[in-house]
User: What shape does this take?
Amino acid sequence: MTMNNDYIDRPAIIAEVTSAFYRYEKALTGNDTEVLDELFWHNPRTVRLGAGENLYGIEAIRAFRAARPSVGLDRQLQNTVITTFGDDYAVCSTEFTRQGSEKTGRQQQTWVRMADGWRIVAAQVSLMS
Assistant: This one.
């Protein structure tokens, strides 16, 4: 299927994904591991490539979240771009900074609408000096 511009960034779908994205952000900075777990696809094919770790499968992602320190998670986002394709697929990209660090972080997530809502199926986080 060729996707024309009528299927890209439909306002209602952008609103849904934006809400899910900022719900994730609130859970991340508040260390709400229950919501973070909810928003990832519960599947062994889910991938999260982090700044210092490569996590393959939901169980590895859960273990990482459980072991991660719960302090120093606040951050400021900039250059956030959310693009949707059709009604069921989206890519969210953002940069972030944390107080006390001179590094700029980058985060990219692939979201897919599943039967139980929007879920992250792949994510990548990296840091730049």
Q: What stands out?
A: The chain has three helices and six strands. The longest strand covers residues 117-128. The helical segments are 11-29, 33-39, 58-67. The beta strands are 47-49, 54-56, 76-85, 89-97, 104-114, 117-128.
